[in-house]
Amino acid sequence: MKRISWVACLFVAACESGPDGPTSYEDMNFAQRYEFMSEVVLPQMQETFVRFDAKYESMTCATCHGEGASDGSFAMPSPQLPLLPASEEAFFEYLEEDPEHLRWSNFMAEEVWPDMAELLEVPVYDPKAAPTGFSCSNCHMHEGQL
């Protein structure tokens, strides 16, 4: 409970409205986004990823942002994350070819998408209701994008 309170306080402080800060991630400047990602998003996502696989105990900005963490751009989607198929049909084939792909896809859709969408105050992807909502494409590139 203590950790949840700490995270909630950081979230409120990072997203506070008024003269010191904007109300949403979209409205934050680079410095505010960096602080929010470092102090709120990284710890929460590290916790989420560690529940999935303990190797993420050492998760850093580079885990998701790749070279963008080193060069300071933090650009997303990241070419250092696994490349995903470009079409829906190819994606379903990708899921069938390796059980790990399906396991990761389920984890991302059930855990990562909702957590990140909530943190960034954006909807979760839904092809009809929120076609630009948070999804794979926010972090992963698709074949043909490189």
Describe this structure as you would to a colleague:
This is Cytochrome c domain-containing protein. It comes from Nannocystis punicea. With 146 residues, the protein is mostly helical. It has one domain (2-138). The protein has helices spanning 2-15, 30-52, 61-65, 67-71, 88-97, 99-120. α1 (2-15) packs antiparallel against α2 and α2 (30-52) runs antiparallel to α6 (99-120). It is globular. The model is unreliable at 1-18 (pLDDT under 50).
Considering the chains and any ligands shown, give keywords for the structure:
mainly alpha; 146 residues; 0% strand; globular; Multihaem_cyt_sf; disordered N terminus; single chain; Cytochrome c domain-containing protein
Q: What is the beta-strand fraction?
A: under 5%
Helix content: 40-55%
Helices and strands, in order, run as HHHHHH
| Count of DSSP-assigned helices | 6
Mind telling me the C-alpha Rg?
16 Å
Q: How many beta-strand elements? A: 0
The global form is globular
Distance between the termini: 43 Å
- Poorly predicted sequence stretches spanning 5 or more consecutive residues: 1-18
Largest pleated sheet: none
Q: How many separate domains? A: 1
Alpha-beta classification:
mainly alpha
Mean pLDDT across the residues is 88
Short description:
With 146 residues, the chain is mostly helical. The chain is 54% helix and 0% strand.
Topology record:
Elements: H1 2-15, H2 30-52, H3 61-65, H4 67-71, H5 88-97, H6 99-120
Helix pairs in contact: 1-2, 2-6, 5-6
